[in-house]
Design brief:
The complex is a heterodimer of chains A (about 120) and B (about 110). Helix content of chain A is about 0%, strand content about 55%. Chain A is mainly beta and about 120 residues long. In chain A, a hairpin with a 3-residue loop joins strand 9 and strand 10. Chain A is globular, with a radius of gyration of 13 Å. Chain B is mainly β. Chain B contains no helices and 11 strands. Chain B is globular and about 35 Å long. In chain B, about 30% of the residues are buried. Classes of the chains: A mainly beta (about 120), B mainly beta (about 110). At the A-B interface, strand 5, strand 9 and strand 10 of A face strand 5, strand 9 and strand 10 of B.
Chain lengths: ~120, ~110
């Protein structure tokens, strides 16, 4: 069965960079699909952040384009989110999800707090 | 960006009720609309894709319909496990955008 599991630091200081990892089991991220990051803010608004495709191409939400990078380690079947210059507005639960219209598998989410 | 307006934002219903949740897009999205359920604890689950296709394992009491910019999710007879948050997603154009959600609560 396909499973996705997010991991991250839990707490980041303002102006720093956040790095999150999504570990995928049961399916190779190089076989097919787009591998996405989605976040949910306090108050429950969901925002699509971007993806890395099975071929390695990326697409980002323009609202984040200058701060976001999604990369991968195919040997570990993992993909990563880096978000630079974080503020308290980036406090959210971050999900990774598999997508080929629609999002069919999601991780459980990891909570990230931005605070000094 | 395509804006997705869900209504109501919350509603109370009883076991066995038939309920319909609405999602309206700021422009036509050609049926590229999915519905997701989120229960307390955060797990997000795909219910319906491409307007009306039931995801594998989802009970048949769930159904979806719509076209153009107006879409709905219907639960024909509420069961206890259906009380949750529901979100629509448009994937007709990037950036993908979600509705703000409908919270379905037990009356």
């Amino acid at each position: 069965d396909v499973q996705l599991q997010e991991s991250g630091p839990g707490l980041v200081k303002p102006s720093q960079s956040l790095s999150l990892t999504c570990t995928v089991t049961g399916y190779s991220i190089t076989s097919d699909y787009a591998w996405n990051w989605i976040r949910q803010f306090p108050g429950n608004k969901l925002e699509w952040m971007g993806y890395i495709s099975y071929s390695g191409s990326t697409s980002y939400n323009p609202s984040l384009k200058s701060r976001i990078s999604i990369t991968r380690d195919t040997s570990k079947n993992q993909f990563f989110l880096q978000l630079n210059s974080v503020t308290t507005e980036d406090t959210a639960t971050y999900y990774c999800a598999r997508f080929r219209a629609p999002f069919d598998y999601w991780g459980q989410g990891t909570t990230l707090t931005v605070s000094s | 960006d395509i804006q997705m307006i869900q209504s109501p934002s919350s509603m109370f219903a009883s076991l066995g009720d038939r309920v319909s949740l609405s999602c309206r897009a700021s422009q036509g999205i050609r049926g590229n609309l999915d519905w997701y359920q989120q229960k307390p604890g955060g797990t997000i689950k795909l219910l319906i894709y491409s307007t009306s296709n039931l995801n594998s394992g989802v009970p048949s009491r769930f159904s979806g319909s719509g076209s153009g910019s107006d879409y709905s999710l219907t639960i024909s007879s509420l069961e206890s496990e259906d009380f949750a948050d529901y979100y629509c997603l448009q994937r007709n154009a990037y950036p993908l955008t979600f509705g703000a959600g409908t919270k379905l609560e037990l009356k």
